[in-house]
């Protein structure tokens, strides 16, 4: 098990009012993302707990692109990873943000 | 004038006839028959195709007395069964020319490194068949069919595959043809091989083995593969108007097949793309066929469980008067080369020029048909819209009347494959392998100058539009995602290529990655495919979970 954590400044707040959402599954080659609206609007944190060790550089790049594309201000995303590939990680992160934004009303 | 080959052939037949009643030989005498017919150093085709296997004859050959039969030169499409390699361990065989070695890819690599096999070359199917007629003509062919009559007329059933090419080369050049069959009948349902080309028939106790190579379970298709399929349909099939094509056997192309009746239908593409195919009977194409997308399919071989469905769909497939599929690998490979405008398939490794290979240092899978399907036919002379458009993109300056068209050769896959192994590499493992084995050529599956597009979840790289090697490299880095190759890209250069549509991201094509949902698949399980087929598709038990 390896744990990684990245904190980024964001351009804007993630829309919506929902405070918590969960996407994905904990399984081999897959991951679960818990997203919580608990941070100041201009901050984002991604905390990773992964079964696959030694992919720090890839995680760093995936998370940086994610923050740039989605601007998830105010969100803390906690990842429980079963060795998912970067494309799956990107997809789940995007799904997590959409879920917390979409269901807000 | 010397007729030594004919005299030798007659002597072999004479020796074999002592074990036969007419042409029929008991299975228990199969090894004795081979010992009687074979001579040391013979060139032998032991029919191992992509799918069907002459398994009884393979076992019989593995059991011959090595003092009598040794140092054979095996010339065969597929190295598939353990016996295909056992004969090299024992010394029965020495030299090998082949095309494909899927299930034995790890062992064949080990034996090549260990010097147990003297390798001629790894071929593409059509190339090996061609050499059967020039410099690799078999002295003895050990083939396989469904049934035979007493005159040796053979019925090959849906899996005709390589048999006509093998028999043609052997029987008409003073060779001996020995067939194993599942049964001896009074009258075969269809004559696939005329009896005067067959010298001995051995009845096997169990039906020959067929590998279900082309069945992909829709349940295993990932969202990322669906995304690559959406990109390919909207970014390549649609703008080029690709009607005539061949698909590889990976999950990405299976996803494309399952998206035609859903995503493709929504885009209004029915009848405009993917109507005519050189393709094995892929179960994942059933929903598209049943939705009226497909006009015609010619097949290299058959697929386990598809027989009844094919029989009911003889309006689509090539079938005999008995209703069963007539496949033919040599003709279908020719069709793929000359009459298809696109090949799309997966690979294991792509380098920065766009060369691709399925060879790794521990596995030599061979090529099968991919280098043939995935290459531009330099002898092609008939025009078609996609071929002309691709030719224009590659060479806008030559006058229209003098410009060659180009076949679309598309490599599709995820940036990271199984176990997080990146698809993009600095150097192909094939080069290291060639150096270690002292080969004249690295086993490259599709050469860079034949590849026109690469599709990943990051987008499409159109290599036809690249004008320099540096552009090409960055077109590839630009869709290589988070692999080391991808992370080594110059962001500014990639954005310039994107502006010229050399690189197209999902958003450039109006595709939201979040829409890549399994609900888009026309069938989400093998059971769904059975339903689509009206209960006619009978999947092998390993694909059933009900």
Strand and helix map with partners:
The complex is a heterodimer of chains A (105) and B (546).
Chain A: E1 2-9, E2 20-24, E3 31-37, E4 43-50, H1 56-70, E5 75-81, H2 86-102
Parallel strand pairs in A: 4-5
Antiparallel strand pairs in A: 1-4, 2-3, 3-5
Helix pairs in contact in A: 1-2
Chain B: H1 4-17, E1 24-25, H2 30-37, E2 43-46, E3 52-53, H3 55-62, E4 72-78, H4 82-90, E5 93-100, H5 105-113, E6 118-122, H6 125-132, E7 140-148, E8 154-155, H7 163-171, E9 176-184, E10 200-203, E11 209-210, H8 223-240, E12 244-247, H9 251-266, E13 276-278, H10 286-290, E14 296-298, H11 307-312, H12 329-338, E15 342-345, E16 349-350, E17 356-357, H13 370-373, H14 385-394, E18 408-412, H15 429-437, E19 453-456, E20 459-462, H16 469-478, H17 484-487, H18 491-499, E21 503-504, H19 526-532
Parallel strand pairs in B: 1-10, 2-4, 2-7, 4-5, 5-6, 7-9, 9-10, 12-13, 12-15, 13-14, 15-18, 18-19
Antiparallel strand pairs in B: 3-11, 7-8, 16-17, 19-20, 20-21
Helix pairs in contact in B: 1-2, 2-3, 3-4, 8-9, 16-18
State which percent range the strand residues of chain B make up: 15-25%
Largest contact between chains: A-B, 16 and 15 residues
| Low-confidence runs of chain B | none
CATH superfamily of the largest domain in chain B: Glutaconate Coenzyme A-transferase
Going by helix content, strand content and strand pairing, the class of chain A is alpha+beta
Number of β-strand runs of chain B: 21
Structural write-up:
The complex is a heterodimer of chains A (105) and B (546). Chain A is α+β, with helices and mostly antiparallel strands and 105 residues long. Chain A has a single domain (2-102), classed as Ribosomal Protein S5, domain 2, CATH 3.30.230. In chain A, 30% of the residues lie in helices and 33% in strands. Chain A has helices at residues 56-70, 86-102, and strands spanning 2-9, 20-24, 31-37, 43-50, 75-81. Chain A has a five-stranded mixed β-sheet with strand order 1-4-5-3-2, covered by helices on one side. Chain A is globular and about 35 Å long. Chain B is an alpha/beta fold and 546 residues long. Chain B folds into two domains: 10-210, 3-Layer(aba) Sandwich (Glutaconate Coenzyme A-transferase), CATH 3.40.1080.10; 218-527, Glutaconate Coenzyme A-transferase (3-Layer(aba) Sandwich). Chain B is 32% helix and 16% strand. Chain B is built from 19 helices and 21 strands. In chain B, strands 1, 2, 4, 5, 6, 7, 8, 9 and 10 form a nine-stranded mixed β-sheet that branches. An eight-stranded mixed β-sheet of chain B has the order 14-13-12-15-18-19-20-21, sandwiched between helices. In chain B, β19 and β20 (459-462) form a beta hairpin. In chain B, α2 (30-37) crosses α3, α8 (223-240) packs across α9 (251-266) and α16 (469-478) packs across α18. Chain B is globular, with a radius of gyration of 24 Å. The mean pLDDT of chain B is 96. Chains A and B meet through α1 and α2 of A and α8 of B.
């Amino acid at each position: 098990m390896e744990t990684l954590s990245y904190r980024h400044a964001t351009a804007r707040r993630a829309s919506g009012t929902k405070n918590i959402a969960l996407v994905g599954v904990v399984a081999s080659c897959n991951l679960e993302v818990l997203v919580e609206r608990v941070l100041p609007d201009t901050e984002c944190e991604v905390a990773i707990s992964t079964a696959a060790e030694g992919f720090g550089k890839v995680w760093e790049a995936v998370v940086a692109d994610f923050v740039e594309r989605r601007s998830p201000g105010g969100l803390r995303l906690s990842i429980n990873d079963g060795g998912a590939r970067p494309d799956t990680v990107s997809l789940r992160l995007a799904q997590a943000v959409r879920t917390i934004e979409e269901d807000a009303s | 004038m010397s007729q030594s080959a004919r005299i030798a052939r007659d002597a072999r037949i004479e020796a074999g006839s002592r074990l036969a009643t007419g042409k029929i030989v008991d299975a228990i005498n199969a090894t004795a028959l081979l010992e009687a017919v074979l001579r040391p150093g013979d060139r032998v085709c032991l029919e191992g195709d992509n799918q069907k296997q002459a398994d009884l004859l393979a076992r019989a050959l593995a059991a011959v007395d090595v003092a009598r039969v040794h140092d054979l030169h095996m010339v065969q499409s597929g190295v598939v069964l353990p016996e295909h390699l056992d004969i090299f361990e024992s010394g029965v065989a020495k030299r090998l020319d082949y095309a494909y070695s899927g299930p034995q890819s790890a062992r064949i690599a080990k034996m090549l490194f260990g010097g147990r096999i003297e390798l001629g070359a790894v071929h593409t199917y059509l190339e090996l068949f061609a050499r059967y007629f020039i410099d690799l003509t078999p002295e003895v062919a050990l083939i396989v069919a469904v049934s035979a009559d007493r005159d040796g007329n053979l019925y090959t059933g849906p899996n005709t595959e390589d048999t006509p090419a093998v028999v043609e080369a052997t029987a008409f050049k003073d060779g001996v043809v020995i067939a194993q069959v599942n049964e001896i009948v009074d009258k075969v349902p269809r004559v696939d091989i005329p009896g005067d080309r067959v010298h001995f028939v051995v009845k096997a106790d169990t039906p020959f083995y067929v590998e279900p190579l082309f069945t992909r379970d829709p349940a295993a298709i990932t969202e990322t593969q669906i995304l690559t399929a959406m990109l390919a349909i909207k970014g390549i099939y649609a703008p080029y108007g690709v009607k005539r094509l061949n698909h590889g056997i990976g999950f990405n192309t299976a996803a494309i097949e399952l998206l035609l009746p859903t995503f493709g239908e929504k885009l209004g593409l029915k009848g405009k793309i993917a109507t005519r195919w050189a393709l094995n009977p892929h179960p994942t194409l059933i929903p598209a066929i049943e939705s009226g997308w497909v006009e015609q399919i010619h097949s290299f071989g058959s697929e386990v469980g598809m027989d009844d469905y094919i029989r009911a769909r003889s309006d689509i497939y090539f079938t005999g008067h008995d209703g069963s599929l007539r496949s033919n690998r040599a003709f279908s490979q020719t069709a793929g080369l000359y009459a298809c405008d696109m090949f799309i398939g997966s690979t294991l490794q792509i380098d920065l020029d766009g060369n691709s290979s399925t060879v790794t240092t521990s596995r030599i899978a061979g090529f099968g048909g991919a280098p043939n399907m995935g290459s531009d036919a330099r002898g092609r002379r008939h025009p078609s819209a996609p071929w002309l458009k691709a030719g224009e993109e590659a060479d806008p300056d030559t006058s229209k009347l003098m410009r060659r068209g180009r076949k679309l050769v598309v490599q599709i896959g995820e940036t990271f494959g199984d176990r997080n192994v990146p698809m993009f590499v600095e150097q192909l493992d094939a080069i290291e392998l060639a150096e270690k084995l002292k080969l004249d050529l690295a086993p490259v599956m599709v050469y860079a100058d034949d590849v026109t597009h690469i599709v990943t979840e990051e987008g499409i790289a159109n290599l036809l539009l690249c004008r320099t090697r540096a552009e090409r490299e960055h077109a590839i880095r630009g869709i290589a995602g988070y692999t080391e190759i991808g992370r080594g890209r110059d962001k500014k250069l990639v954005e310039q290529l994107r502006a010229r549509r050399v690189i197209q991201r999902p958003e450039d094509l109006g595709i939201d990655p979040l829409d890549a949902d399994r609900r888009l698949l026309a069938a989400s399980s093998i059971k769904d495919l059975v339903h689509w087929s009206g209960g006619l598709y009978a999947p092998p038990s390993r694909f059933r979970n009900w």
